[in-house]
Amino acid sequence: MKYRQQSEKATVVTEAAAAYADNPAVAVDRILAGLPVEEFDALRSMLGLPVEEMATKIGISVATLSRRRAKQQPLDRDHSDRLMRYARLYWMAVDYFGEQTTARDWLGRPARGLVGRSPLEFAETEMGAREVEDLIGRLEHGVYV
């Protein structure tokens, strides 16, 4: 997996791969502290998902998300962890496909290796996300899926 350089103002969605490789404690500490709602917005935009769909994926209601945004409160650790899960998969797909549009499209399409579900749908649990990671690994190594 290729990793991105971290900028001084990098968001978790742009540093997901690098954070795990270079210093996993930084990513874990940020998740435990709660990621800002802006991280949700950045990843949602990168994935091309409506607010409602992204909120459902990380298990937060739109009303709670709006409240946190208005009060400038961070996401809780569970929502932050789920957000990081999707960011990690997004960058793995970008690394494999070489560009963001193709990766985003692939994440949203049904995949034979995931019993006909899309990678984004399959990744709604940690176990499912690991299966998506495995699928990307198999694709990278030319293993038939």
Walk me through this protein's architecture.
By secondary structure, this protein is mainly alpha-helical. The chain has one domain (12-140). It is built from nine helices and no strands. The protein has helices at 12-22, 24-33, 37-47, 51-58, 62-71, 77-97, 100-108, 119-122, 126-140. Helix 1 (12-22) crosses helix 2 (24-33) and helix 2 crosses helix 6 (77-97). It is globular and about 50 Å long. The protein starts with 11 loop residues before the first helix and ends in a 5-residue tail after the last helix.
Properties at a glance:
disordered N terminus, single chain, mainly alpha
List the helices and strands and how they pair.
Elements lengths: L11 H11 L1 H10 L3 H11 L3 H8 L3 H10 L5 H21 L2 H9 L10 H4 L3 H15 L5
Helix pairs in contact: 1-2, 1-6, 2-6, 3-6, 6-7, 6-9
Counted beta strands: 0
Number of domains: 1
Low-confidence sequence ranges: 1-10
Structural class based on helices, strands and sheet pairing: mainly alpha
Biggest sheet architecture = none
The ordered string of helix (H) and strand (E) elements is HHHHHHHHH
Number of helices: 9
Global mean pLDDT: 88
Task: Provide the gyration radius in Å.
Answer: 15 Å
- Kindly, what is the distance between the CA atoms of the first and last residues, rounded to a whole number of angstroms? 20 Å
Give the DSSP E fraction (strand runs of 2 or more residues).
under 5%
Overall shape:
globular
Question: Into which percent range does the helicity of residues fall?
Answer: 55-70%
